Amino acid sequence: MTAETSTPVPANEINPPEKVVPAPPTAPIQFNEEDIRRTLRRALVLAGAVVLVATPILWAWLGWRTWLTFVIGAAISATGIVEWLQLLSAMMSRMEEGRTPVPMGRVLIMFFLRLAVAGVLLYASLNSLHGSIYALLAGLAVSLLALSVECIRLVFRTG
Predict the structure, then answer these.
(1) pLDDT tens digits, residue range 24-82?
(2) What DSSP state is assigned to residue 98?
(3) C-alpha torsion 112→116→117→120, nearest 10
């Protein structure tokens, strides 16, 4: 044993206690109006691309009735994204000072009119076209899928 190792050293002198620094609070991811608007537009473009790719496949494989049912479902779901863009503009114009507020009456009338037209299109496509209900559901899910992909991209891009 050497002289250096034989003398006892208090534990505090070997490893002095480090200051415990609390982790900084994580701020939630913040988006501005332009981020959300860009995400909704990109989702609309992505949904359109999916419909363009699926159109010849569905028409050749399952027939025109199923294809048309799919397109009707996709059109209904795409108008939902457009409606969200209009609602976003109306709400943000009311919240920000200095902007001319968009009349909410027009936006709400268009919202309920779109719902009524979507209901009529769903009923008519199921009763008269006799296409596949699964094609209609797939068409309705196209925009939901596109919106999910674009939201995930937005979170990873900003986070």
Answers:
(1) 666 566 777 788 888 899 999 999 999 999 888 888 888 888 889 999 999 999 998 99
(2) T
(3) 170
Buried b vs exposed e over 120-137: b needs ≥16 C-beta within 10 Å?
ebbeebeeebebbeebbe
d(CA 136, CA 142): 10
Residues 6+ apart with CB under 8 A from 122: 72, 76, 136
Residue 101: CB partners within 8 Å, gap ≥ 6?
Answer: 90, 93, 94
Does residue 77 contact residue 144 with C-beta atoms inside 8 Å?
A: yes
Alpha helices in the chain (DSSP H): 3-6, 11-14, 33-62, 64-95, 104-124, 133-158
Domains of the chain by residue range: 54-159
pTM: 0.71
Q: How far apart are CA 56 and CA 66, in angstroms?
A: 12
Total Cβ atoms within 10 A of residue 22: 5
